[in-house]
Amino acid sequence: MNICIYCASSQNIDRKYLDLATEVGTELARRGHTLVSGGATVSCMGAVTSAARAAGGRTIGVIPQVLVDIEVADEESDELVVTADMRERKGVMDARSDAFLVLPGGIGTLEELFEIWTARVLGIHDRPLVVLDPWGLYEPLRAMIGHMYDEGFTRPDVFDAISFTSTVDEAFAHLESRAQPVRPSVAELGEAAG
C-alpha cells in the first residue's frame, strides 16, 4: 500500500516530533508499505523518509522545482518526481496514494489535510485519512470544526471522513483496515509475468 504522509518541514520544532516521524517511517517499512512524501530532506519529512529507507522501505518523493533549486530534494528516494509547482505536487501525491496519514505540522500540512479531507467529505475519494496527534496539537482544530458543524457550515459526516489517533499502532490499524491498494499497472503486471 502507498501511504502519503503529510508532516512538518519546520526546523524549529521539539525533538519529539522528529522522533515520532522516525517511528512512523520505521513502522511503515516494517509493515511493507511504500512511503509517498513531499520529497524533501528537512525536519519531519526528512526523518520519516530516512527512517523508512533505513528499515528497507520504498520511498517516493514528490517535490516542486523551486525546492529542488534550494537543495532540499531527497535525491536518495527510490523515485523522485519533480513538479512544476506546489499544486501539481499535491495532485501527484494524491494520485500515487492509497491512504493518507497526517503528522503534526504547520500551515502547509493543514493545507494538505484540508484538501484531502474536503475531497473525502465530497465523495471524490474514499481512501482512509488518519491524523496521528499524540500531544493534542490538532485539538483546537477539531473543536473549531465541531463549532462550524454546530453552526451549520459543515456536512454531518465531516468527522466520518477522518480518524484522529494518538499512537503509531492505532494510526496504522486505521489505515490498513480501510485502504485498498492501488492496482498494479499493465507494465508492472507484464514485468511480473516475464
Give an overview in words.
The protein starts with a strand and ends with a helix. The protein has a 7-stranded parallel sheet with strand order 4-3-2-1-5-6-7, with helices on both faces. Helix 1 (15-30) packs parallel to helix 2. The chain is of the alpha/beta class. Helix content is 46%, strand content 16%.
Task: Please sum up the structure shown.
With 194 residues, this protein is an alpha/beta fold. It has helices at residues 15-30, 43-54, 65-69, 86-95, 107-121, 139-150, 168-178, 186-193; strands spanning 2-6, 34-37, 58-64, 79-83, 99-102, 129-132, 163-165. It is globular.
| Dominant shape | globular
What letter string, H or E per element, gives the SSE order? EHEHEHEHEHEHEHH
- What number is the mean pLDDT? 92
Q: What distance lies between the first and last C-alpha atoms, to the nearest angstrom?
A: 23 Å
Number of helices: 8
Binned strand content: 15-25%
Strands, helices and their partners?
Blueprint: E1 2-6, H1 15-30, E2 34-37, H2 43-54, E3 58-64, H3 65-69, E4 79-83, H4 86-95, E5 99-102, H5 107-121, E6 129-132, H6 139-150, E7 163-165, H7 168-178, H8 186-193
Parallel strand pairs: 1-2, 1-5, 2-3, 3-4, 5-6, 6-7
Helix pairs in contact: 1-2
List keywords for this structure.
46% helix
